């Protein structure tokens, strides 16, 4: 399978942490204009016919520059790249030597990428998502984002922060598939050359426009 695309005291004690997740998201969107990190992504398919869900893990690097530019470079087990250059969203599958091209304006509104890389401010996020604080767990503060557009393929996204630093994404799609991305070696506001977000289809690749 390829990867394509909480008793009174307890509530009182966790209230500040819940608010902290929203505060962390607001600070992140406002102050972090670019970033670079490594990631591990675990995708779990929903169980079928009494069988446990299948799990697949991949690793790679992630870079972004707000607003609207990012690159996911999957390295293992399959080489894939997802690049948004501000106008176009590109998906390159090295095994298939195939490129999928979409207009970025039509592809990013209610996606996890909009939460961490595309939106210029919190107000822009709130146009597409209902944002609510979630309980602290795993040492992180969480925000749950539910798309206002109910016709998409995304049920919700939870964004985990350690302080104001992005640490994790948990994505649940409309098919019951769960993707968990954990970020490490996070760099905040690095100077990223424009070439990072430039994409040119490899020679001989099939290019599919959607």
TrEMBL record:
It is found in: Periplasm. Its main location: periplasm. It comes from the Bacteria. Residues 1-19 form the signal peptide. It holds the Pfam family LolA. PANTHER family: OUTER-MEMBRANE LIPOPROTEIN CARRIER PROTEIN (PTHR35869). Participates in the translocation of lipoproteins from the inner membrane to the outer membrane. Only forms a complex with a lipoprotein if the residue after the N-terminal Cys is not an aspartate (The Asp acts as a targeting signal to indicate that the lipoprotein should stay in the inner membrane). This is Outer-membrane lipoprotein carrier protein. It comes from Variovorax paradoxus.
């Amino acid at each position: 399978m390829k990867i394509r695309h909480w008793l009174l005291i307890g509530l009182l004690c966790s209230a500040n942490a819940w608010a902290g997740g929203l505060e962390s998201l607001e600070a992140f969107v406002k102050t972090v204009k670019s970033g670079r990190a490594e990631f591990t992504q675990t995708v779990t398919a929903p169980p079928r016919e009494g069988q446990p869900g299948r799990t697949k893990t991949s690793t790679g690097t992630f870079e972004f520059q707000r607003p609207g530019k990012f690159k996911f470079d999957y390295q293992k087990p399959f080489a894939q790249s997802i690049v948004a250059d501000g106008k176009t969203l590109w998906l390159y599958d090295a095994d298939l030597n195939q490129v999928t091209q979409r207009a970025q304006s039509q592809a990013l509104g209610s996606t996890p990428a909009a939460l961490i890389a595309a939106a210029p401010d919190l107000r822009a996020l709130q146009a597409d998502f209902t944002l609510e604080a979630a309980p602290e767990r795993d040492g992180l503060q969480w925000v749950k984002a539910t798309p206002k557009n109910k016709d998409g393929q995304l049920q919700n996204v939870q964004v985990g922060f350690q302080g104001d630093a992005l640490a994790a994404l948990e994505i649940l799609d409309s098919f019951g598939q769960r993707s968990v991305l954990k970020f490490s070696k996070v760099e905040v506001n690095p100077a990223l050359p424009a070439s990072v977000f430039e994409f040119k289809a490899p020679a001989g690749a099939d290019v599919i426009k959607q």
